[in-house]
Structure formats: structure tokens, C-alpha cells
Write a structure and sequence with these properties.
The chain is mostly beta strands. Helices cover 15% and strands 41% of the residues.
Length: 235
């Protein structure tokens, strides 16, 4: 099991990342989503609350260049499902689940981002909490080792996740030109502390120059009530 803070500190540019797991006491479903940026356009963002979820928003609207891949709703809630993604596929999953499709089926209509030569992977997660039970799934859609003619699709499902354990998936293995896509299964990471200490640990572990925003949510598995924290570098 990896230490999440060490994993983040050792990587100056993991890009965007999703963590999903269960608190050490077993009572809370835990998720975190962070965004980073190298360009001024990517860094010109904040997370804002929208309904039960969040949306990205330009910090300085006058400096917004291309909104197509940076303005979206990373988190939406549909009934017992909390959807977390790194792009507008949040809406695709939301609509698909509403129509009776599975998480995996909903993403069949999407591919990696059209931002060659990086072809940034689309990473997604969905948490399902009902009647005191909790499971989650994660997905990554990516180019075939940088070849955009083929989309490689991977879905991972986790039933009754173990207390104190989570899975971490991010868009890039490390900084580079072009940026190398994430490879392998979502990483097994330790989930420790309450929402305050967990949020602080993740935020402080992200590269100071590149980090932009962080969202953390703890959901009570028995009651469905939740606590949320949002941290923005631009304040």
C-alpha cells in the first residue's frame, strides 16, 4: 500500500487525479479530486459549488482562452451515486445512469481528450452508497500509447472496499513533452485521518507551482450525509 502524500510529493505533474476509498474507521466513503496546470489557461481556475457537486470556473474571466477542456462539472450526484471525473464525461455518465445504462456503458460514447500530442486520458469514478453498503468503480480511456487511432478502455470495480484503503488514478505518469499517460491499475493508497487532516495532507503534497484546486468529500455510509472541502490556490 502506497502513502498518498509520498506518491504526490514524488511527482511534480500527475495532472488531474481521483482518489476513492474508505476511511480508516470504515464509516465514510472518501473521494478526492485535484487539478493541476502548466499553462496560464489551466492555472486560471477555481472550484465552485454547484448543486450537490462542483464546477470549474475561470478565476479571471478576462484571461480565459479556450474553455473547451478546462470548464466542466467534475462532480455530480444522482440519487445514491456520486460521479467524479476529469472532464465533461461527468454529464455523459450522469445521463447514462439516469437512462439505465451502467457506468461502463455510459462511457462507450467517449474517448480520450482531443489534445494531441498528449491525448489526455479521461479518468472517471462513481461511488454507490445504499442501505449501508458501499462500492465504487473507476475508469480510464486513453490512446494506444500515444496513437489516437485506438482508444484503450479500462474499468475497475471495487465491492465493499476495505477500511483505510483507497485507489488513486491520475492522468499523467509524470511531467514531459508529450505528457505520458497513466499506466497500470489504479494505485492502492492508504486513507487516513478525518476530512480536515486528509484534505490538508493532499493539498500540501501537491507540487506548489502546478497545483490549482482540490475537492474532498466524506460520505457517511449509514446515513448518506456528507462533508465537503474545497481548496483553491486562486483566492
Amino acid at each position: 500500500m502506497l502513502q498518498l502524500n509520498e506518491e504526490l510529493q514524488s511527482n511534480a505533474y500527475p495532472g488531474r487525479g481521483i482518489v476513492i476509498g474508505r476511511s480508516r474507521d470504515g464509516r465514510k466513503a472518501v473521494t478526492a479530486y485535484f487539478i493541476m496546470g502548466r499553462s496560464s489557461n489551466s492555472r486560471n481556475r477555481v472550484f465552485v459549488t454547484e448543486g450537490e457537486g462542483i464546477r470549474t470556473q475561470a478565476y479571471d474571466p478576462s484571461k480565459l482562452e479556450d474553455p473547451s477542456l478546462i470548464i466542466y462539472a467534475p462532480v455530480r450526484v444522482l440519487g445514491k451515486n456520486t460521479i467524479v471525473t476529469n472532464g465533461d464525461q461527468t454529464d455523459t455518465i450522469y445521463d447514462g445512469l439516469k437512462e439505465g445504462l451502467t457506468f461502463e456503458q455510459s462511457l462507450r460514447s467517449r474517448e480520450f481528450e482531443p489534445d494531441g500530442p498528449n491525448y489526455t486520458p479521461r479518468i472517471s469514478g462513481v461511488m454507490h452508497i445504499e442501505d449501508g453498503k458501499y462500492d465504487f468503480a473507476m475508469s480510464i480511456l486513453k490512446s494506444n500509447n500515444g496513437d489516437p487511432d485506438c482508444c484503450n478502455r479500462y474499468t475497475y470495480t471495487y465491492d465493499n472496499p476495505k477500511a483505510g484503503e483507497g485507489r488513486f488514478i491520475h492522468t499523467y505518469m509524470h511531467d514531459g513533452n508529450p505528457l505520458p499517460s497513466f499506466t497500470g491499475e489504479p494505485k492502492v493508497v492508504e486513507i487516513d485521518g478525518d476530512i480536515e487532516s486528509f484534505t490538508q495532507s493532499v493539498w500540501e503534497s501537491l507540487n506548489e507551482d502546478n497545483k490549482v484546486s482540490l475537492f474532498v468529500r466524506f460520505i457517511d455510509i449509514e446515513t448518506g450525509s456528507c462533508e465537503t472541502r474545497i481548496v483553491n490556490k486562486n483566492v
